[in-house]
Write a structure and sequence with these properties.
heterodimer; A: mainly alpha; three-stranded antiparallel β-sheet; B: alpha/beta; Beta Polymerase, domain 2; five-stranded mixed β-sheet; 7 strands
Chain lengths: 414, 166
């Protein structure tokens, strides 16, 4: 016996939920979106908790410190030459700049004058490092905007740069290049050949990359007027490097306080106008060209002479000498065992890192390790501006803003 | 071109007793300022017509456990991008009164740098919008960069400082 009404109308009426009376009410509620800590688009381990109103970002809350390794604390127990291995791990996209920055800080404290040839070799390596740093940043900016091709083109060139590093110091990523007082080895003919090959092969690839991106309609739509920051705000936030120059301030440590013979070279400082993501991209592109100019000039005018300073108590002697010469053996032992006392002093030395002013603040009390060593890490200081820059934009814009800031987790957390 | 003497003279004239210990290691003017006059001095340097020292490069702390009454030091590096002139300011604090006014009212960049200094040294920045740990975890109950926390295991006997550095 059928007790239910099985007619179509009756079934539909039973299955349709009751709709509330009147127009639909929208509740103005914010969505919390967790971006990170391990998100492929952040390129590093840091978290952003975003409050979203629909598509728009209302506010952001940053959490950093996921790869903090206490370098400043470790430095207080390490002999001076061992600290350089720690600096590698800060901005790992341009390790040689960090390495030489630390060497120059020590040389300033010790009063060691580095020969011209070593300074020029350092300039070549630092500018190659800057190129590779900017290549990664701009390549990945393309990836984050949805264009993978350019990244793959450029990575082959980064590979060439890493081969030059390998020729210079045997390592590729964590280079630990150079020594306090000069370089640990001279530019070998093979290294010179590789640098010349890079100078020859790189420009066509870079031009192709620029052709692909610079005036690309879709790419420009994604980047122009996204995440702008005024020069005043950028300075207040402590921006340095390409990000500050994109906002229109021509501050470059290489020109303002020349170190390692940068005053010998002719190069331009590209500056942007509005400080938006597109300007940051273009400034980095142009800096790659300027760095290439410096590498060419340095290689062309490479002076003859020694590649390390005459400072036997600080510079690790060549291995052949250690086997034959008593003094060399003594110095070798003392340096390797960390028994070299540094003079008392207080030094601040800054170099132009891949992301901006990389500073080393060193207090020495005359001991074998620094009394206090502080790294002024450009990323750490300017990344605070991220919530302000992405306020009111969409999530996809926030990703490209972060990407164009070139936040390197190792440098952020030290 | 600003000279260290000119800047030092100007600051002494303006702040008198509050500034002391002038020095210029490696040609960088270094001076100590009292805690009360720190923010007025930063403001003065920032607004000064010719100095225009309006960029806060760096802010960090140092621990000197052996100098009683001034165990902690907060170091400010400021830079005038117009004149290309750098200056270093120091504020010394006693361990039992470890307060210093925040510089965030003048510089946004001081925000995280002060949090970092608090995180590692426990220096309290009065008026900071959010004084929390930044690189270490929230649950940590000590300040790791203080000198009483040795990096190496203190009970080890095979590693003698006299032989293997400190």
């Amino acid at each position: 016996m059928v007790t239910e009404d099985l007619s179509i109308d009756a079934v539909e009426a039973r299955n349709t939920p009751a709709t509330p009376e009147g127009p639909i009410q929208y509740v103005n509620e914010l969505t919390t979106l967790n971006l990170g800590p391990t998100h492929p688009a952040t390129h590093g381990i840091f978290q952003n908790i975003l409050q979203m109103d629909g598509e728009k970002i209302v506010s952001g809350e940053q959490t950093i410190g996921y790869i903090h390794r206490a370098f400043e604390k470790i430095s207080e127990r390490r002999p001076f030459y061992q600290i350089k291995a720690l600096t590698d791990r800060m901005n790992y996209c341009s390790s040689p700049i960090n390495n030489f920055g630390w060497d120059m800080t020590m040389e300033k404290l010790l009063g060691v004058e580095v020969p011209k040839r070593a300074q020029y070799i350092r300039v070549i390596m630092m500018e190659l490092a800057r190129i590779s740093d900017h290549l990664i940043c701009n390549g990945i900016l393309g990836v984050d905007a949805g264009a993978f091709t350019g990244f793959l083109y450029l990575f082959q060139q980064r590979e060439e740069i890493y081969e030059i590093y390998e020729e210079m110091c045997g390592a590729r990523l964590t280079t630990n290049m150079g020594r306090v007082g000069g370089m640990e080895r001279d530019l070998s003919p093979e290294a010179i050949r590789k640098i010349r090959k890079f100078i020859k092969n790189f420009p066509p690839v870079m031009r192709e990359f620029e052709k692909l991106f610079n005036r690309n309609r879709i790419f420009m739509d994604r980047l122009v007027d996204v995440g702008p920051i005024s020069a005043e705000r950028a300075l207040n936030y402590g921006f340095t490097g390409p990000n500050l120059r994109a906002a229109g301030v021509d501050y470059d440590v290489r020109v303002m306080n020349p170190y390692s013979s940068y005053e010998d070279f002719e190069f331009d400082i590209p500056v942007g106008k509005s400080g938006d993501t597109y300007d940051r991209f273009m400034v980095r592109n142009e800096e790659i060209w300027q760095s290439l100019r410096i590498v060419e000039q340095a290689l062309e005018n490479l002076p003859e002479g020694p590649y390390y300073a005459d400072a036997p108590e600080y510079y690790l002697p060549p291995k052949q000498e250690v086997y034959k010469n008593m003094e060399a053996l003594i110095y070798h032992f003392k340096i390797v065992m960390g028994e070299i006392d540094a003079p008392v002093g207080e030094v601040y030395h800054a170099v132009e890192g891949g992301n901006g002013e990389l500073g080393f603040y060193l207090i020495s009390d005359g001991g074998r390790a620094p009394y206090r060593l502080h790294f002024r890490r450009p990323c750490f200081i300017y990344y605070q501006a991220f919530p302000e820059m992405c306020k009111g934009t969409t999530l996809s814009d926030a990703i490209v803003i972060m990407s164009s800031l070139n936040v390197i987790a190792g440098e952020l957390d030290a | 071109m600003l000279t260290n003497e000119a800047v030092a003279q100007d600051i002494i004239q303006q702040f008198g007793e509050a500034v002391s210990e002038f020095d210029d290691p490696f040609d960088l003017l270094t001076l100590t300022v009292s805690r009360e006059k720190l923010i007025p001095l930063l403001q003065y340097l920032k607004d000064h017509k010719t100095f225009q020292i309006s960029f806060l490069t760096d802010l960090t702390g140092v621990h000197f456990p052996d100098s009683p009454g001034r165990e902690f030091c907060v170091v400010y590096h400021a830079h005038s991008l117009i004149n290309n002139y750098r200056i270093r300011l120091k504020v010394f604090l006693a361990e039992n009164d470890i307060h210093v006014p925040t510089a965030t009212i003048l510089y946004e960049s001081a925000n995280w740098m002060e949090r970092e200094t608090f995180d590692f040294f426990g220096i309290l920045f009065d008026g900071h919008p959010k004084l929390q740990r930044i690189l270490n975890m929230e649950e940590m109950d000590y300040f790791p960069m203080r000198k009483q926390y040795p990096l190496e295991d203190g009970t080890r006997e095979d590693k003698i400082d006299a032989l293997f550095g400190r």
